[in-house]
DNA sequence: AACGGGCATTAACCCAGGTTAACAATGAAT
DNA sequence: ATTCATTGTTAACCTGGGTTAATGCCCGTT
């Protein structure tokens, strides 16, 4: 009855174990990398770098979560973001094409994939809502409330770049509202 | 070979035809509405209203696209946004639970659902990127470039609220950059 | 023709956040 | 212990966008 057991089985059967040290890069913006990465231990950050050099953090990926560049996979284009280890991390790597093939053959697996994609879409909609409707201060408060397990594993600067403000601005927000 | 034909078939077989006039509401934030709506003709807007009364537009939904509140469906909670017709619209309405049931029974349909969810996730990631990394002016330019077919069907105020700025600010941006 | 409502523009004022820079604190490397 | 790099704080100044309000335009209604 546990969810996603077919996906988990696929990962353990076909996934390739990989280790990364703190600060080590998994892939870079522009690379062609059609894999999904499942985090067994550790912490990753996915981030964009603009043409002017500004870094913006798309997401943090902790144990039990997976990530990969949909753009690279679906559009056969380069990755739209970079992926780096914030802590020493154990990953399971799987070619996305393999997942697609297997899901086309196995209905239970396809159902697991639907669950994963639904969860992803909802997470992204949530974030869209926060940028659209909330102030930087409100986004900060929500982050504290919803990801308390992350706050002592990331720097304040990275939290700022995840929230869409500069590190200086986040320092001011903290002072302002405790 | 055409994509999503199973989903299309399901819609025509089980979908209920509904007509809405301009300005008519399909559902409201907080309502319990577990349907997905496929737009045959017309144009919808999905929007949040904050506790202070500020309206923020989540998305415009034109012919050939579908929408529904994932939050209402997956979490059995109220809709997180409101849906209204910007033009007289013909919709096909389907209980999401029906889609879930049928997808659990039909593997080809499940594959169609995966395609839809992938496309949705990528659209939302794109929007996340724009809010995270681009200025209001850059978001405006991109909107012009990527949705030219919409600009003469929506008001400038609605475009502003979609881009995350006030109508006054968008008027200034237009003046600034042509 | 006259009225009234929504929409876009513009101006004036204010504020949150960006930018730059100085400074302190921490911590890893020699 | 010293050095160097990274991080966080604070200050000064600037700018983009929010707010409010006035004005004019367009359009649909009567």
In short:
Chains A, B: It comes from Gilvimarinus algae. Chain A is of the alpha+beta class and 178 residues long.
Describe the model.
The structure is a homodimer of 178-residue chains. Chain A is of the alpha+beta class. The first copy, chain A, has a domain at 5-106: Jelly Rolls. The first copy, chain A, has seven helices and eight strands. In chain A, the strands form two sheets. Chain A has a four-stranded antiparallel beta sheet with strand order 1-8-3-6. The first copy, chain A, has a four-stranded antiparallel beta sheet with strand order 2-7-4-5. In chain A, helix 3 crosses helix 4 and helix 6 (156-163) crosses helix 7. At the A-B interface, strand 5, helix 2 and helix 4 of A face strand 5, helix 2 and helix 4 of B. The structure holds a DNA duplex (30 and 30 nucleotides). Chains A, B: It comes from Gilvimarinus algae. Chains A, B: Residues 20-94 form the Cyclic nucleotide-binding domain.
Biggest protein-protein contact in the assembly: A-B, 31 and 31 residues
So, the CATH homologous superfamily of the domain at 5-106 in chain A? Answer: Jelly Rolls
Broad CATH class of the domain at 5-106 in chain A:
Mainly Beta
* Distance from first to last alpha carbon of chain A: 44 Å
Helix run count of chain A? 7
| Dominant shape of chain A | globular
Structural class of chain A: alpha+beta
Please indicate the percent range of residues of chain A in DSSP E strands (runs of 2 or more).
15-25%
CATH topology of the domain at 5-106 in chain A: Jelly Rolls
- Given as residue ranges, the uncertain stretches of chain A (5+ residues, pLDDT < 50) are none
- Classify the oligomer: homodimer
Query: Which whole number gives the mean pLDDT of chain A?
Result: 95
Gyration radius of chain A, in Å:
17 Å
What composes the largest sheet of chain A?
A: 4 strands, antiparallel
Fraction of residues in helix of chain A: 40-55%
* Biggest sheet, spatial arrangement of strands of chain A: 1-8-3-6
According to DSSP, the number of beta strands of chain A is 8
CATH architecture of the domain at 5-106 in chain A: Sandwich
């Amino acid at each position: 009855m546990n969810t996603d057991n077919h996906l988990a089985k696929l990962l353990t059967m076909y996934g390739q174990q990989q280790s990364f040290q703190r600060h080590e890069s998994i892939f870079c913006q522009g690379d062609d990398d059609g894999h999904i990465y499942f985090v067994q231990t550790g912490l990753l950050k996915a981030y964009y770098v603009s043409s002017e050099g500004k870094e913006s953090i798309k997401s943090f990926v902790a144990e039990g979560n997976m990530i990969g560049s949909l753009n690279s996979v679906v559009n056969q284009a380069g990755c739209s973001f970079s992926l780096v280890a914030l802590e020493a991390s154990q990953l399971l790597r799987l070619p996305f094409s393999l997942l697609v093939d297997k899901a086309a053959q196995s209905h239970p697996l396809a159902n697991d994939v639907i669950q994963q994609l639904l969860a992803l879409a909802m997470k992204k909609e949530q974030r869209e809502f926060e940028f659209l409707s909330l102030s930087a201060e409100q986004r900060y408060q929500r982050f504290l409330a919803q990801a308390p397990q992350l706050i002592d594993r990331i720097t304040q600067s990275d939290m700022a770049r995840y929230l869409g403000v500069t590190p200086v601005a986040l320092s001011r927000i903290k002072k302002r509202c405790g």
